Amino acid sequence: MMSNHSSATEFCLLGFSGSHQLHYVLFAVFFLFYSVTIISNMVIIVIVSVDKRLQSPMYFFLGHLSALEIMITSLIVPAMLWGLLLPGMQTISLAACVAQLFLYLALGTTEFALVGAMAVDRYVAVCNPLRYNTIMDSQTCILVVIGSWMFGFLSEIWPVYATFQFTFCKSNVLDHFFCERGQLLKLSCDDTLFTEFILFLMAVFIIIGSLAPTIVSYTYIISTILKIPTASGRRKAFSTCASHFTFVVIGYGSCLFLYVKPKQTQAAEYNKIVSLLISMLTPLLNPFIFTLRNDKVQEALRDGVNRSCQLPKD
Predict the structure, then answer these.
(1) Which of 56, 171, 231, 261 has its CA 20 to 30 A from that of 97?
(2) pLDDT tens, N- to C-terminus, the chain (314 residues)
(3) For strand 90-93 and strand 173-174, is the pairing parallel, antiparallel, or unpaired?
(4) Reduced to 3 states, what is the DSSP secondary structure of residue 281?
(5) Distances (CA, A) of 274 to 60, 258, 268, 271
(6) In whole angstroms, how far apart are CA 230 and each of 225, 226, 237?
(7) Given strand 173-174, what is the order of strands in its sheet?
């Protein structure tokens, strides 16, 4: 515990409650999820990079999305796993806490921007197929990715700076498994209400702002698909968007529950559950969402496996 009128120079992460046996079970489950997440997203990156059939804007964005998923989950999960194995609380320095929170928010915001760009890409593919290659050329795709990264990192500088301007004198114990902003604000002796409101407005701008092009794009996409005369044509058109739409529902849904609320200091257990969805479940599902209904990716995976099996025979 910190004495009054002093600010924490390090924090203790409380992690998960429960017995050691429960911690070992959670470790096994989370380690399995983390391993599958890293391997499957790496597979996506490799096949998108080497397979010529996947050299299109959709898969270019998908490769970057998988890279973001690996970074987001690796920023949180390894330390969380280590905490499950060790008795007691983990400590994290103030500088490391600042860096972790900033990277977590910046990478998440970058992902939102990229998902919005992917929705626009699907709109062009379905609604303007003849102009698709002209509009979504390689230069445009590179600029979109660079813009997404810049937007993600620049937009989170002030929110993180504002968070750590407060004096954390109530305690230095964070009831979480990483430096989560809501739990940090709970430790402040200052009046955080106005800053929380500004952070709420910024979360609305970032999440709803990146969701807007997705909503507009899918409005036009659905309208265009419904005009296709044949059922097979409608299914084919929708299949190009189904994976992205599923990812949007899961990713945006969990973040709306966690960040788009006027009061950032929600109950710790609530924040832990939603944070797990963002940092573990969404990155885990991403490769499966984009491969289970995608014939091109499945073909590329099968060919890659076949080539790998033939290597020892050569």
Answers:
(1) 261
(2) 444 444 678 888 888 877 888 889 989 999 999 999 999 999 889 888 888 878 888 889 989 999 999 999 999 999 889 888 887 778 899 999 999 999 999 998 998 899 889 889 988 988 888 888 899 999 999 999 999 999 999 999 999 999 998 888 878 888 888 898 888 888 888 888 888 888 888 888 887 788 888 888 888 888 888 887 877 777 766 666 666 677 777 766 666 665 555 554 456 666 777 778 778 888 888 787 777 666 777 777 777 777 767 655 55
(3) unpaired
(4) helix
(5) 29, 6, 10, 5
(6) 10, 9, 11
(7) 90-93, 10-13, 173-174
Structure tokens at 182: 């809501």
Give the pairing of strands 10-13 and 90-93: antiparallel
Q: Return the biggest CA–CA distance within the chain.
A: 72
Q: How far is the CA of 6 from the CAs of 94, 173, 180, 214, in angstroms? A: 13, 14, 20, 45
| 14's tokens | 């409380």
Nearest in space to 119 (alpha carbons), one of 226, 222, 233, 255: 222
Residue with tokens 């929380």: 196
Say how far apart CA 197 and CA 259 lie, in whole Å: 11
Residue 271's alpha-carbon distances to 100, 122, 151, 177, in angstroms, are 16, 33, 25, 10
Q: Which one, of 207, 160, 205, 192, lies nearest residue 263 by Cα?
A: 192
DSSP 311: G
